[in-house]
Structures are given as structure tokens and as C-alpha cells.
């Protein structure tokens, strides 16, 4: 393999360590940087979760302030510093150019810059933990007046300012990435790769990038207003005597971003699931077009559902009904996508590799997460369920599925491509089953706590008579959560061990998959294709179609170039 | 590798499937799309507040329409020179391109200078960002816009210097696009705060 590339006359330039590993413009290196940083932040976010879960089982383990801070940072970290960098920055960067047959991103320097801005934002976030006056503790949604009133609440202090600054930098970084993704896919697809031949993962990344681009802006505007409130004493969101700010305005700006944001991380995860499920079922996607159109429809609808987070915030009841209807409507494209995913299994010859196990569990749990969203989307039932553990269980079933299960499925699936080595399969299967069991042990009891009327965010259930009898449920959830994190930490040891010392993967296409990235050597060299160029001949999922004996047809072939390639060409 | 590597025929040169737009321009438009919504979000919030608080009109009498009109002229002149710069870039008269880009940047810095005079007058009269609904939006939005003018001027200046090394029509065009964007935002801000 390496000979094929070496002999092909690629102009080679030696890179220094700094250029190669730290300030690299290679999309794969940047993707790995995002992946590793995201994993490090996941350990931090997970540890915080364990600490406040222990407090819930044994109240008094943390102080009130610590508890609030940890809950706040757990939510923010898992959304913005784990799910987004891993799913968009990590998988997006590594896979998009490979899947579309490009040599790199359209703006490689901007890409490098986006990672380093993200890195700085992570550092500022961690610094905000230790500043005088305490870390930010107003919840990951940063609701005013808790976050806007200096002096009156613990929420508004230097920690808050740094927290908002870190968020702003993280958004800037992801915006740079989004511009890059969209431009790259629109202008740099391999010959023959029309839009309707793109792997679903690429479609999902593009729709996610567009959603992020158009939804994050009002929140940036809102964050500027909030900073002015804290620093200059304006009162956009503050409601002291004689001042006419409006805290609900923040909620509108936040959730106008916040709901599309959920889909920003959901779509890439669904994309990973489609790639994994088609490969290990040896089946084409049941209906490629339906998935693409449903994704676009859901993307558009996602801008019209935000106020379903505010049913009890004092909004006009009429608009609550309108938002309830759009919320129920948006479940239609997602149901279609999941039905297509389910039908893709049908008639396949399923191979239960670790990636596939994770994908199956993700599929099952996402159905639970989706169904439990319905009672929250309808106004009547939401008034009861709002801010209870039912909501916590619902969004952990969706977001954990997205950010952890799908991500790990993706890691197992593309690990040979990324590092040229294998992860032990037996370990992977045990990992999948343990994760599945401990995860359900941790999240499922939440539905019952919610039904029993247990509000979320409470420091201790023991202080409320009617909740005391549920303390054992908290203990069960805490034990499961500790075991869940332990399992993942063991996995990370195996992950890093396998990067450096795993068995070498000789074949560039160990899973006999169809999409273009499997044509490149593992790991792909700088500029990916050497002196070859991929040319695409067919759709992305040509697995055992009815009436054909061939197991699979790669999406395209590599064609040798007459002129050697150096640097970027457009 | 060998099973995958089915070399059939040889290509002269690598080619991509692409929409018929240069990738720099496309990326820039995507970026502008995001910018439009940032400023759109905050202007929309201002309009919502303006509709619900009648006190808005009283406060807006204290802004200085004359200074703002001069500033509008300055920005529009900058747009004119930006267009001229692009025109001369297409016919490759690079000396004139640099001249007009320089004039555009000068307009930007003039705008910011005049804005400072305006702010200091208002602060002198006791109108601070915390003085009321109108003033917090006034300072917030015009301040954010001012930062965009600064960024636009620096971009224009950067392109002007960059032209010595590489003469790219696209760079002039994209910098001009950003300038026009900043200009158009001002055309919304001007009536919102000065002409009501």
C-alpha cells in the first residue's frame, strides 16, 4: 500500500513535529485533535456527573454551591465541549473530505484555526472554574435573572463572564468549521459524486452545519446583551423595581438556538448510525431519498419549535398550542428516519461487531427517547412533567444515545481507518453490553421519578417528605452511573493502548464497506489519495441488492493521475 | 489496497464536482449568512421592545440626527469607493484598486471617530447604557455595529496590503461584500434609533 503511494511521484515535503501534530492543517490530524480534546472533556463532564450523583444518593457530599456548579458545567460541557467537537469537529473533519474524495477541506488554515480557538475556549472554561467569586452556577441554559444580576445571585460574577466568553469562542470555532464543511461539500466532491450520491453521514453533517449557522446567531446576540447586563448594568433581561427587562426574551433567544442545537448533534449521530448499520447488515438504506428529505424537513421545522421549552414560562397560551403542534409535527420526519433505519436491518445478514452492537442499542434507546418526548411536546402533559426527572430521563435517552453510544459506534467502525490498527472485538462486545445495562440502570428509573413528581435540579430528595421513599432509586441510579463511567474509562485505556500497540490492520477496508473513505490507505496519508483520484460510479450503499450475488460494490474507483499532486488544488 | 485499487484509465488532472461558484466566494456568503442573523437577532429584539414600550420615542429625541446623517454619508461613500475598487480590479488597474480600498478604510475609521464624538456627547448629557430601554439597545447595537465597521476597515486594509503580493479579484470582491453588509445593517439602525 505504502509503495503504491510512494512510487506514485507525490511531491513529498518533510514536516516538523509542530506542523505535523500541533499546528497541522491536515483534516485528519485536526479531526483527531478534536476527538481527543472532546474525550478529555467527556471525562471531566462525566466525573462532575458522578460527583453530584453521589450527592443525590448521599446528600451532604457536596455543598449547595458545588452541586449547582457541577450540574451547570456537566450540561454545558457535554453539549458544547463533548458532543459538538466530537461529532462535528472530530468525525466531520476526518470523514467528510475522505467520503467526498477531496484531498482536504476547502479552507485548511481556517480549519486549524477553528481547532485552536476551540482549545482556548476549553481552557477558559476550566479557568472559569477556579476564579474568585466561584464558578458559574446558574444552569447550562444560563437563564436570567439568575445569570444577569451581579450581587444578587451567585450566578453573575467573573465566573459567568468567563463562562460566556468560553461559549462564544466555542461557537466561533464551530462556525468556522461549519463554513468549511458546507463549502467543502458543495465545491470539492469527487467526479461523479452528485449530491444524491453523498453518503448520508455527509448529508447529515451539512444539514447540521447549516442549522448551527442559522440558529446560533440569535444566541450570540443574546450573549452580548447578557454580558452588557452583567458588566455595564443594562437591563435587557433584569427585572428589578422600575426596570423593564424581560427574562423570557433570553429564553426565546436561547431556545431558538437550543432546539436546533439538539439536532446539530443528533444529525451527525444518525449519520454514523446509517453508515454502521448498512455496513454490518449488508443492506442498502431502505430509502435513501426519504432520509435526506426527512432530514431537511426536520431541519426546517426545528426552527419553529423552540417555545416548547417554555410552556410554563408565562408565554401566551395560544402560542403554546401553536408550538405544541409544530413539536408534534417534527416527530413525523424523525419517525420516518427511524422506520427507514429499522427497515434497513430487515433481510440483512447482520454481523454483531462492537460497532453494530452500539448502533443497535443506540437505535433502541433513541426510540425510547423519542417516544418519551411526545408527552413533553404536548402542552397539557408537559405542565405536569416540566422540570421533573421525566425530562432528565428523556433527554438522557436522546442525548446520551447521540453523544456516547453513536460516537462509540463510530469510533469502533472507523478506528482501523483512523489509526491503521484494531481494537479487540471481544472487549468491544463486553463494553457494549455493560454500557447498555449500566446506562439503562441509570437513566430508566428517571421516568418513574418524574411520574411520581420528583422535580429535577433538587439538591436532596430527603428534605421533602413525599420524595423520601424514592431515595433508594437515587442510590440505584448513582451506582449505575459510577459503573457506567468506570466502563468508559476502561474503554479509553483500551482505545489509547490500541492506537499505539493494537494489532495492525492490513486491509484498507476491513468491514467490506462501500463508501470512498475505505478506498484510501489506513491511515490515509497527507492529501489522502497520493497520485490517484477517486471517481464515483454509483450510490453509496450498494450492498447485496435483491437478485445479485455480489456482496457489495464500492462507490467508486481510484484513477491514476498523469500529473503528480502537491498542495491544494481547487 | 490492491483489491480496491482498480486503476482503469488515467486522468489528466484531478477535477471536482462543484457548484458553479468559486469556493472562497461561497464560503464568504455562508459566513455572511450567519452574520446577518446575529445582527438580525439583536435588531429584532430591539423592534419587539420598541413596540411594547412607548418611552422609546421620547428617548430617541435625544439622539443627534445631524451627526448620524453625516456618518451615513461617510459609510455610503465607503461603499462607493469599494465598488470602484472592485471595478478597477476586474480591469486589473491595481494602483487604483489600492487607492480606492485605502479610501474605503479611511471612511471606516472616520465613521468610528465620529461615533466616538457622538458617544461622548451623549455620555456627557448623562445618557448611559443603563439609562433605559432605548439607551441600552442604542449602545448595544450601534456598538456592535461599530465593531463590525472596525473589522470591515481592517479587512479592507488587509486586502490592500495583500494586493502587493497576490493580485486577486476575489479578495477585493469579498472584502467589498463585507463592507456593503456592514453598510446595509447601518441603514436599518439609522431609522430605528434616529428617525423615530
Short description:
With 570 residues, chain A is mainly alpha-helical. Helix content of chain A is 63%, strand content 2%. Chain A is globular and about 75 Å long.
Describe this structure in words.
The complex is a heterodimer of chains A (570) and B (196). With 570 residues, chain A is mainly α. Chain A has one domain: Cytochrome c oxidase-like, subunit I domain (Cytochrome C Oxidase, Chain A, Up-down Bundle), CATH 1.20.210. Chain A is 63% helix and 2% strand. Chain A contains 16 helices and 3 strands. Chain A has helices at residues 2-6, 17-22, 27-57, 64-100, 108-127, 158-187, 200-232, 247-281, 288-301, 317-345, 354-377, 379-385, 389-419, 425-443, 445-451, 471-501, and strands at residues 189-190, 532-536, 556-561. Chain A has a two-stranded antiparallel ribbon with strand order 2-3. In chain A, helix 3 packs parallel to helix 5, helix 4 (64-100) packs antiparallel against helix 7 (200-232) and helix 14 runs antiparallel to helix 16 (471-501). Chain B starts with 9 loop residues before the first strand and ends with a helix. Chain B contains 6 helices and 2 strands, in the order ββαααααα. Chain B has helices spanning 23-52, 55-60, 65-90, 94-124, 133-162, 169-193, and strands at 10-11, 16-17. By secondary structure, chain B is mostly helical. Chain B has one domain: Up-down Bundle (Four Helix Bundle (Hemerythrin (Met), subunit A)), CATH 1.20.120. The relative contact order of chain B is 0.16. In chain B, 76% of the residues lie in helices and 2% in strands. Classes of the chains: A mainly alpha (570), B mainly alpha (196). At the A-B interface, helix 6, strand 1, helix 7, helix 8 and strand 2 of A face strand 1, strand 2, helix 1 and helix 5 of B.
Amino acid at each position: 500500500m505504502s509503495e503504491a503511494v510512494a512510487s506514485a511521484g507525490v511531491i513529498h515535503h518533510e514536516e516538523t513535529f509542530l506542523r505535523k501534530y500541533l499546528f497541522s492543517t491536515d483534516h485528519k490530524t485536526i479531526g483527531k485533535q478534536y476527538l481527543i480534546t472532546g474525550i478529555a472533556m467527556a471525562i471531566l463532564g462525566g466525573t462532575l456527573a458522578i460527583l453530584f450523583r453521589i450527592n443525590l444518593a448521599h446528600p451532604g457530599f457536596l455543598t449547595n454551591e458545588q452541586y449547582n456548579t457541577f450540574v451547570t458545567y456537566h450540561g454545558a460541557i457535554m453539549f458544547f465541549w463533548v458532543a459538538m467537537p466530537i461529532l462535528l469537529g472530530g468525525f466531520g473533519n476526518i470523514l467528510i473530505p475522505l467520503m467526498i474524495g477531496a484531498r482536504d477541506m476547502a479552507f485548511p488554515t481556517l480549519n486549524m484555526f477553528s481547532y485552536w480557538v476551540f482549545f482556548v475556549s476549553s481552557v477558559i472554561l476550566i479557568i472559569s472554574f477556579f476564579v474568585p467569586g466561584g464558578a458559574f452556577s446558574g444552569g447550562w441554559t444560563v437563564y436570567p435573572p439568575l445569570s444577569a444580576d451581579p450581587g444578587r445571585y451567585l450566578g453573575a460574577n467573573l465566573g459567568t463572564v468567563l463562562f460566556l466568553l468560553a461559549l462564544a469562542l466555542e461557537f466561533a470555532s464551530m462556525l468556522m468549521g461549519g463554513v468549511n464543511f458546507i463549502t467543502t461539500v458543495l465545491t470539492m466532491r469527487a467526479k461523479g459524486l452528485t449530491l444524491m450520491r453523498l453518503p448520508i453521514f455527509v448529508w447529515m453533517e451539512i444539514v447540521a452545519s447549516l442549522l448551527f449557522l442559522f440558529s446560533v446567531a440569535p444566541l450570540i446576540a443574546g450573549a452580548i446583551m447578557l454580558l452588557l447586563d452583567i458588566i455595564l448594568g443594562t437591563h435587557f433581561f433584569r427585572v428589578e423595581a422600575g426596570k423593564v427587562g424581560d427574562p423570557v426574551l433570553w429564553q426565546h433567544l436561547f431556545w431558538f438556538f437550543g432546539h436546533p442545537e439538539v439536532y446539530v448533534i443528533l444529525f451527525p449521530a444518525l449519520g454514523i448510525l446509517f453508515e454502521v448499520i448498512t455496513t454490518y447488515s449488508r443492506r442498502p438504506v431502505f430509502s435513501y431519498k426519504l432520509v435526506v428529505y426527512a432530514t431537511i424537513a426536520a431541519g426546517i421545522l426545528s426552527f419553529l419549535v423552540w417555545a416548547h421549552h417554555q410552556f410554563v414560562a408565562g408565554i401566551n397560551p395560544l402560542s403554546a398550542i401553536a408550538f405544541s403542534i409544530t413539536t408534534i409535527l417534527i416527530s413525523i420526519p424523525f419517525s420516518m428516519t427511524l422506520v427507514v433505519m429499522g427497515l434497513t436491518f430487515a433481510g440483512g445478514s447482520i454481523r454483531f461487531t462492537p460497532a453494530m452492537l452500539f448502533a443497535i442499542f443506540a437505535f433502541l434507546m433513541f426510540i425510547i427517547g423519542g417516544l418519551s418526548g411526545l408527552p413533553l411536546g404536548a402542552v397539557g402533559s408537559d405542565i405536569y412533567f416540566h422540570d421533573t426527572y421525566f425530562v432528565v430521563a428523556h433527554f438522557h435517552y436522546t442525548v446520551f444515545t447521540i453523544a456516547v453510544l453513536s460516537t462509540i459506534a463510530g469510533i469502533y467502525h472507523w478506528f482501523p481507518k483512523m489509526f491503521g490498527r484494531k481494537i479487540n472485538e471481544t472487549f468491544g462486545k463486553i463494553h457494549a453490553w455493560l454500557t447498555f445495562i449500566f446506562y439503562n440502570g441509570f437513566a430508566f428509573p428517571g421516568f418513574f421519578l418524574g411520574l411520581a413528581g420528583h422535580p429535577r435540579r433538587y439538591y436532596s430528595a430527603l428534605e421533602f417528605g413525599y420524595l423520601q421513599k424514592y431515595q433508594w432509586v437515587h442510590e440505584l441510579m448513582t451506582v449505575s452511573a459510577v459503573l457506567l463511567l468506570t466502563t468508559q474509562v476502561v474503554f479509553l485505556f483500551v482505545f489509547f493502548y490500541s492506537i499505539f500497540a493494537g494489532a495492525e490492520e492490513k486491509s484498507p477496508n476491513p468491514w467490506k464497506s462501500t463508501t470512498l473513505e475505505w478506498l484510501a490507505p489506513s491511515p490515509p496519508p497527507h492529501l489522502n489519495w497520493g497520485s490517484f483520484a477517486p471517481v464515483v460510479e454509483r450510490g453509496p450503499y450498494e450492498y447485496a441488492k435483491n437478485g445479485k450475488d455480489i456482496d457489495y460494490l464500492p462507490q467508486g474507483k481510484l484513477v491514476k493521475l498523469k500529473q503528480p499532486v502537491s498542495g491544494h488544488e481547487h | 489496497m490492491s483489491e480496491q485499487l482498480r486503476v482503469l484509465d488515467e486522468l489528466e488532472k484531478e477535477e471536482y464536482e462543484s457548484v458553479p461558484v468559486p469556493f472562497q466566494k461561497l464560503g464568504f456568503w455562508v459566513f455572511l449568512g450567519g452574520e446577518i442573523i446575529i445582527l438580525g437577532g439583536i435588531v429584532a429584539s430591539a423592534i419587539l421592545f420598541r413596540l411594547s414600550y412607548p418611552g422609546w420615542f421620547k428617548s430617541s429625541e435625544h439622539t443627534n440626527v445631524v451627526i448620524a446623517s453625516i456618518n451615513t454619508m461617510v459609510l455610503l461613500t465607503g461603499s462607493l469607493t469599494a465598488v470602484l475598487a472592485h471595478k478597477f480590479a476586474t480591469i486589473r488597474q491595481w494602483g487604483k484598486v489600492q487607492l480606492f480600498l485605502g479610501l474605503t478604510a479611511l471612511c471606516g475609521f472616520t465613521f468610528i471617530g465620529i461615533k466616538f464624538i457622538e458617544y461622548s456627547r451623549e455620555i456627557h448629557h448623562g445618557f448611559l447604557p443603563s439609562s433605559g430601554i432605548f439607551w441600552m439597545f442604542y449602545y448595544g447595537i450601534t456598538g456592535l455595529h461599530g465593531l463590525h465597521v472596525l473589522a470591515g476597515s481592517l479587512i479592507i486594509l488587509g486586502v490592500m496590503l495583500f494586493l502587493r503580493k497576490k493580485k486577486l479579484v476575489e479578495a477585493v470582491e469579498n472584502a467589498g461584500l463585507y463592507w456593503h453588509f456592514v453598510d446595509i445593517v447601518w441603514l436599518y439602525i439609522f431609522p430605528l434609533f434616529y428617525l423615530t
